[in-house]
Design brief:
59% of the residues lie in helices and 0% in strands. It is an all-alpha fold and 195 residues long. Helix 5 packs antiparallel against helix 8. The longest helix has 39 residues. The radius of gyration is 27 Å and the shape is elongated. The N and C termini lie far apart (83 Å).
Amino acid sequence: MEVVIPHTFVGPKVTFTGMEDPKEDLIAFHTQMMLVGGSVAVRCKLFTSTLTGMAMDWFVSLPNDHITSFAQLSQLFCEQYIANRAPPPVSYDLFDVKQYQGETLKEYINHFGAQVVKVGTTEEPMIVYAFRKGMCPGPFCESIIRCHPRTFAEIRRRAMKNIAIEGEVCEKHTSVAPARLRASLRAQSGQRAPL
């Protein structure tokens, strides 16, 4: 508590109310502290500034001089809010990722890829199968069914052409819409208002 924090030091921007996952909060805090620097003592002192509501009440309730290191504080913090931890992801969670109606191929690949990273699986046949099962019917889905890719990286490479086509089609739709609007306005202005 005696450490002095320089006035130019930028503190962390995370907040913890007591409802969030404590592990994710600590990771965000550590990441921000690594970016701005600061000793372990500074981290201990600044961590309390991220707590609000019942989380701050918990910290204040700890006995004085009870915490001697940031590792100990982190452990107590995680133990206190362990019920907030999300269950660890498993590789079969990939089958829960679905391409929603109107979601572009690019959005689906990014969404699915984030889940692959989260579950940490390297079982390529399962990744490919889950990706295919989650896709909406369409030209790319049909091409995946006809010619089975072996890896998710291969899916990404093959998807690049379809993503470019989707972009062009979307661009075409947005450039055509105003012309239709102008034509319908001209047609309406040519009609006389009823008396």
